[in-house]
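User: Show me sequence and structure for the first protein, then do the same for the second.

Assistant: Starting with the first protein.
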Amino acid sequence: MTDTRIVIAGAAGRMGRTLVALVHNTPGAVVAGALERAGSAHIGEDAGVLAGVGPLGVKVGDQPLEAILHADAIIDFTAPASTMELAGLAAQARIVHVIGTTGLSADDLGKIDAAARHAIVVRSGNMSLGVNLLAGLVKKVAATLGEDYDVEIVEMHHKMKVDAPSGTALLLGEAAARGRGIDLAAHSQRVRDGHTGARKPGDIGFAALRGGTVVGDHDVIFAGPGERLVLTHKAEDRGIFARGAVRAALWGKGRKPGHYSMADVLDLA
């Protein structure tokens, strides 16, 4: 079997460099392209040198179509506008599009669903094995405990993170909502300030903390009569997200078009 040719979007960023290095060191995978936004100071630089693995002969570019035409997959931890452009191009090329971008709107998700009619899309608010196992536990606990137990999700990330709640927090909220058989959008409490009144039964609350260099901490709290159950995940290294994304890219090659999740990749669905 030939190597899976993978393009890295946002290749000069922290996650992008981690992905370049990991793909380079993964048997059966090869870095086929590296993308950055137009005007980036890193355009023209060798992606391997940026990632600390030595020259790969792959220059950072700003022409996604050119890169995608010679690839089997693209891994994308960028921003919503960039992800939407890449989704359309991945659909045209009928390749694997691994999406770790957070902060996507409902309209964005609808467009990704449309792209998944032609591309193999693997999208998750968190690519790590631990978080996806946690989501499965959250769903089961939410279904078991019922509305007598209030659900609160607390997350903390580094001070440079620009969206809140985190994609992981929303993934966990969706898991809790599925366990309860409710719609998260209709039962999501994102902001509390001033005189809020009593907590509404069935709501799923979110609290976002920002500071320092925290990679990602998430607590799912089930607060019931006289007791609390807290399920926790702490990310200590961005490599856990990169490893999951590369695994998703390899898994997706040769699959039928569709909108998949990490639960599918990890056979947790």
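Switching to the second protein now.
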Amino acid sequence: MNLHEYQAKLLLKQYGLATPIGKVADDAHSALGVAKSINSNAFVVKAQIHAGGRGKAGGVKIVKSAAEVESVVKALLGKNLITYQNAPDGQMVNQVLVEETLSIARELYLSMLVDRTLERVVVVASSAGGMDIEEIAATQPDKILQEVCDPLNGLVDFQARNLAFKLKIEQVAEFTKLLKGLYKLFKENDLSLLEINPLIVTTDGKLVALDCKMSVDDNALYRQKELSAQRDWSQEDAKEAIAHEAGLNYIALNGNIGCMVNGAGLAMATMDLIKLHGGVPANFLDVGGGASAEMISKAFKIILADDKVRAILVNIFGGIMRCDIVATGIIAAVKEVGMTIPVVVRLEGTNVDLGKQILRESGLNIISAENLTDAAKQVVKAVA
């Protein structure tokens, strides 16, 4: 789950970490009030969306008066902002962050993330702040510094000092305090990513998080109630929001073949086979092990909400649920939804022959596949 920049900065402040003075606003009048309350000669107006690259897309503006803040906010709010990270659809700007400007001496990059291979939290830092870290990693890998945190000891002082020396930061004690505070924040809030880009050194020698991105581990949201309540569904695909409410694991993609599978691994394999045979999946959808008729019906409705879908592949392994019950549920769901596009079904498991017979005798536009490869070929053929 992603947090907005303003939400991330409020969390930084709770841990005593420095951020620019500012406040979020959801209309031009409120933004004007925020600007008037800030003692600054200039202001930064930042569109609040869950995507990077806002500055290049016109979502970050520096203005010199409170009146100019109001006009910029009017132009941004309600706009669909498209960046390199959220193209081609973009995301709606419903809020803006208005902040003071600061005098910058240096810009640095700093992040913490979970390295799945090492099974550790890793600190990544670079003297090339304010730039895309992927570009730096590709063109100047020597500028990427890392420190791996021990699960028991956490981030220790000598690691922070080591990074400070390599980054040529004079404020070693302040940087050490900052890094240890970030690590505490990261662990206590079950983050999967914490990125500050840039972390600035001001002309008077202070370290300030000028921008911040945070992602919370979805699997830990049950114990992060306050953070979970801050989720902004307007920044996510509407179908994904509906699926979340229905208890389904759904991720929208850009293809035209809808996928309904029970099991995440099987869903990934299904999408791979569709691609192998020349098709493009429209979604990832895991209905879970106990796929009831009601759940299948909800899944069909979510898939069909995508107007790009021209055929659906249902791949169910009847382990917990018998294949004949699954087949009956699919038929009931197809009838309820009023399906008009082809549906290819691959069943395997308990009572598989009976399940296939039920599908064949349904009289509906349902194609019963012999195996997964046959199913992939059939569904790709159906959209050709």
